[in-house]
């Protein structure tokens, strides 16, 4: 059986969910994930805006769909 992965660095869903619950790690992991995908502007926006609304959206989306918010796909 293949392991289901989530958005944070290909980690398992449970580990990614734990990282998403903690606000500081959620902001850092979300920023690094977006920069790793080549989305520099989206990563910088996560640094600036990741402490409030984006954190809550990431948490809800991680629970529901196992993926973080894709604010910009530029």
General description of the model:
- By secondary structure, this protein is an all-alpha fold.
- It contains 4 helices and no strands.
- Helix 1 (13-21) runs antiparallel to helix 4, helix 2 (23-36) packs antiparallel against helix 3 and helix 2 crosses helix 4.
- The longest helix is centred in the middle third of the chain and has 14 residues, at 23-36.
- The radius of gyration is 11 Å and the shape is globular.
- The protein starts with 12 loop residues before the first helix and ends in a 9-residue tail after the last helix.
One letter per element, helices H and strands E, the order comes to HHHH
Rg over alpha carbons: 11 Å
Beta percentage is under 5%
Shape: globular
**Range of helix content:** 55-70%
The DSSP helix count reads 4
Mean of residue pLDDT? 81
Largest sheet: none
Low-confidence stretches: none
The tally of beta strands, per DSSP, is 0
Terminal Cα span: 34 Å
Structure classification = mainly alpha
Break the fold down into its secondary structure elements and pairings.
Elements: H1 13-21, H2 23-36, H3 40-49, H4 53-65
Helix pairs in contact: 1-4, 2-3, 2-4
Keywords:
mainly alpha, globular
Compose a concise summary of this entry:
This protein is an all-alpha fold and about 70 residues long. It has helices at about 15-20, 25-35, 40-50, 55-65.
């Amino acid at each position: 059986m293949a392991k289901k992965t989530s958005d944070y660095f290909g980690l398992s869903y449970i580990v990614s969910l734990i990282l998403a619950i903690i606000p500081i790690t959620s902001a850092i992991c979300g920023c690094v994930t977006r920069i790793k995908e080549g989305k520099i502007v989206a990563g910088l926006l996560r640094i600036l805006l990741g402490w409030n609304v984006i954190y809550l959206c990431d948490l809800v989306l991680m629970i529901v769909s196992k993926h973080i918010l894709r604010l910009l796909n530029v």
